[in-house]
Amino acid sequence: MSIQAYQRASARAENPREAEYRIFAVVTGDLIRAADRGRADLTALGYAIDRNRRMWSILAQDCAQEGNALSTGLRAQIISLSLWVSRHSSAVMRDGEDITPLIDVNRSIMQGLAPATVLATQDA
């Protein structure tokens, strides 16, 4: 079995929470690498910021849907975070604001989404 076939099969076997965790991990990894490179690599920074902003925009759109199963309060908080991410992302690109708060927010969300196996390895 090729690696790509395994990845496709693995992605199909994920539950929604695991898929969200994985997406956050990939996007947050991009942000961390961009932070390490700093403004010297504006292409990587712009790419990471754009992916993060798009991810949060999709989350907000999903939360705005009437059939979303999350509580109204949690949906409102996610939409609010999405708006903040958009504003702060613009400030990072335009004004050179620190990218770290975006990473911190994503990491906090990841902790809430983390499968038990991930949490167990972090506690060890």
Briefly say what this structure is.
By secondary structure, the protein is mainly alpha-helical. 82% of the residues lie in helices and 0% in strands.
Walk me through what this model shows.
With 124 residues, this protein is an all-alpha fold. It has one domain. 82% of the residues lie in helices and 0% in strands. Helix 2 (16-37) packs antiparallel against helix 3 (42-64), helix 2 (16-37) packs antiparallel against helix 5 (100-113) and helix 3 (42-64) runs antiparallel to helix 4. The longest helix is centred in the C-terminal third of the chain and has 24 residues, at 72-95. It is globular and about 40 Å long. The chain starts with a helix and ends with a helix.
Oligomer: single chain
Shape: globular
Helix % is over 70%
Structural class: mainly alpha
DSSP E strands, number:
0
What's the helix count? 6
Alpha-carbon distance between the termini?
Answer: 33 Å
Strand content: under 5%
Which regions are unreliable across 5 or more consecutive residues at pLDDT < 50? none
Q: Please indicate the count of domains.
A: 1
Mean pLDDT: 89
The helix/strand order is HHHHHH
Largest sheet: none
Q: What secondary-structure arrangement, pairings included, does this model have?
A:
Elements: H1 3-13, H2 16-37, H3 42-64, H4 72-95, H5 100-113, H6 116-123
Helix pairs in contact: 2-3, 2-5, 3-4
Keyphrases for this structure?
globular; single chain; 124 residues; mainly alpha
